[in-house]
């Protein structure tokens, strides 16, 4: 070759990767420069480690601000990765030659450098932004070239022009000459394409290229870079001019390492501007030695079979034929992803798009997660996390999965503590999900490892060198910084779940101090549930929660004292909010251990609320309902209170509010329809509501209708239907419904006392009141 070899590529393009390999095999350069941060040069030998498995990424972060970070991802089919491995395998010098990360990270957030248009996705470097994602330029070179060629889809043009091009038997450098010519024309028209960083980066690249040529000779250097930069690197400039562009650039102290990456994060839809639409498909094209369409269809068939779809070899053969026919009809050299997808839909999926979503997720994009050897540099916290992951057999995976834990087992309890500690540190590897079953000893987590979590771990490293010490330090700092009582109670709950015994005392001191100074009943009510949940789980986790129980009891007693006066004189919105507080406190008090005194005080408070006329109707109705559910209010007394609330002297809006509070779902307005079953089984209450509703004056009916509709719409359809049937029967003399001999639709002609008596022995058996005999056991079996 004559002069340095400039290999302009598309990032993560398998066609570019194959072309780079062919060009390097032909030219045999003594030195290979690759677009990337020079700080990572010391990490290049790790790429030869057999434990290094792409996709991986170079991670650079600011030492003093780990959240300011950037990624340079590399997949097995990335041209840069192919060039790196070629140089290591052939003993060529190799190093990165892009603008150093010390400047790149310092530029982040500076509008002077155009962060809002942070690099092009295709043909450019795709320089990372602060959060490790990429943004596309105003000018997308690939899209412009595709449009010029008459294509409306850049990916389809790329496949036809590069991926489906037969193996080149002539000059292996010819493809790069063609790409350079096209990019030169684009740069003449669009300049730097809207990214103010490009001229600075390209000036640094030219300086590195000059240094390599001086060291190894003009004809012994190859530079693998985004095709967008090739015209700038070939441009004749002076060293003085390039250095002038670099003069005075801001700097930050950085650290660099390798981290695992995923195919999913290579996808453009993840926000990565230099990404591709189908990393799994491109990986297949790069790895398939021959017959890529046949091999792809076989993969698809295997996936569908795993999901119990009936797919045979005949389906595969027919799908391959159809894909080839579609490609011929559309004038394409080979079937692309569009043709294979259409063929799979028609042949294997019976025309349905539903299985295609699975294929796209698992194969077209994929859940491949790379691996990095243990020798890669890492912050101490990351090393401790890696050790815990191995010890607890919690392998990071790119695919989301559910993890069910039984906290009675030591290993599962340790896993739970680790996940809770990481969440406290802001490393959301796991997200709690609804546990299967009702036992407090069970937890369910949804786990999914994202590459950005490495940045979160680096950020959390300022709190300590181990997960335990870091979580403890952050919890202590959070207790000092918290301004609201609910924040401290939530922190106390998290400390118990994460088992942070050293952090709990300062958190409890902060909790006691804020609870003593806070007199707002609403804030106290918001704080109590977290404490009650913590005490409930404390027994399962064998944690000492005596101090927490004392604070929770004191908090509950203060609520009992302050709630009645706080409920007087509230408007409709205030009453609705306070009703939610009453529900949460009622639930929390029942979770408190050894809380007889608190329960008695709370019952007295509810009785005062239910009978005090100055309390809004919604609160009076809710208090009566809670007492009735707990068996502390007789049914006759509940009917009397409803009769008083629905008497002619009560304003219709206030009566409707009482009904909503009484028969509305527990846990707040509209949460569930349990009040409907109450009316179904107590027709006296239903008759009172029915009689009141029919007596509401016409001028007031439109005012109360939205409130009643909201209440009754929360009931299940079957409950609403049953209520309608009961109302249609009409009231009896005693306020209930009369069962006539003819019966009513959906009901029998009358009470069958013999059948009702037959239920009692089985009910005693189910409740465990007596042991069954052999005949009864046989009957249960039947």
TrEMBL record:
It comes from Streptomyces tamarix. Pfam families: DUF5682. Residues 113-125 have a biased composition (Acidic residues). InterPro entries: DUF5682, LolB. This is DUF5682 family protein. Residues 107-137, 726-750 are annotated as: Disordered. It comes from the Bacteria.
